[in-house]
Amino acid sequence: QKNTLGLINLFVEIQAKFPKAKLKIIGPIQNDKYFEEVCERIKELKLGKSIEFTGYLPPNKLFQAVEDCHIHISRSTCETFGRSIFETLACGLPNIAKKTGNGAAEFLDTEPYAKFIDDDKEVIKVIPEILDNLSQLSSMALEVGKLYDNQILAKLLMAKICNKESIAISDFDGTLFHKEDPKRTEQSIEEFK
Predict the structure, then answer these.
(1) Are 25 and 4 in contact (CB under 8 A)?
(2) Strand 72-73, strand 51-55: pairing
(3) Residues near 151 by beta carbon (within 8 Å), at least 6 away in sequence
(4) Number of helices (H) and strands (E), helices first, in the chain?
(5) DSSP code of residue 49
(6) Engineered SS bond to 92: which of 106, 134, 138, 172, CB 3.0-4.6 Å?
(7) pLDDT tens digits, 50-80
(8) Sign (positive/negative) of CA torsion 128, 129, 131, 132?
(9) At 177, is the secondary structure helix, strand, or coil?
(10) Strand 114-116 and strand 95-97: pairing?
(11) What is the pTM assigned to this prediction?
């Protein structure tokens, strides 16, 4: 659902327009076979020197990992909350993400530092606009950091789901709904109660 292959295919178009562009992919490898497909596609497109995989990073290491980045681009096909969007905005990165299937679009669609675009060709068109206004958009995006508190948001979400006033958080990434594993979803909800 993170659509890393879609991101790679978009990145080749981005790099055609911005030859010095680099792509940093943050997050754990969750499916070895899919990761092999991604690596094969990178090799086919001769992008090996332009793409870096960081693997899993704890939230307290994210700012350091993205301090040399300009834009966070997600081609994820399903974001029930859009955690990476809020986290990277809190680090000062303007965002481009798919609108369809993206919970964050409900909250951020009118903000100038967050663009929700399904069409990859439109993504390519909006990148120069973001880069031309990067300083201002980054400053505005940092405002999200004042509002975004991982622990509080996770607690509020679970309180709403469980119809309770207080809860404890146990899942390292806040994921409750596991679309391909109903048992794990039930287990996550029970752990949060």
Answers:
(1) yes
(2) unpaired
(3) 169
(4) 9, 5
(5) G
(6) 138
(7) 999 999 998 889 999 999 999 999 999 988 7
(8) positive
(9) coil
(10) parallel
(11) 0.77
